[in-house]
Design a protein that fits this description.
87 residues; mainly alpha; 4 helices; 78% helix; extended
Length: 87
C-alpha cells in the first residue's frame, strides 16, 4: 500500500498564515490573561519539553553561553536606562 502525502499540499501552503498567527496569538494571549502568569509558565515548560524530545541535547553549552551573554547585555541596558531616567 502506498500513502499519498501530497494530497492537500497546495491548500496547506496557500493558507493565510498571517491570520493563523493572529488567531494563535489571540488565543494564547486570552488564555494567559484569564488563567494568569502560571499558565504562561506551564505553556513555556510544555514547549521546552517538546524541544527536548526533538533535540535531547538542547540547549548546547554554546547556546547557554550566548543566552547568558544576551541576558547580561539586556540587564546592562536596563540599568543604564533606569539611571538615565532618574536624572
Amino acid at each position: 500500500m502506498m500513502f499519498v502525502i501530497t494530497r492537500g499540499i497546495r491548500e496547506f501552503v496557500s493558507r493565510d498564515w498571517g491570520a493563523a498567527r493572529e488567531a494563535k496569538d489571540a488565543y494564547w494571549g486570552e488564555r494567559v490573561a484569564r488563567l494568569g502568569p502560571l499558565e504562561g509558565w506551564r505553556i513555556a515548560d510544555e514547549l521546552r519539553r517538546q524541544a527536548l524530545l526533538q533535540h535531547p541535547g538542547w540547549p548546547h553549552a554554546e547556546d547557554r553561553r550566548r543566552d547568558v551573554l544576551d541576558h547580561v547585555r539586556l540587564a546592562e541596558r536596563l540599568h543604564r536606562a533606569d539611571s538615565a531616567r532618574r536624572r
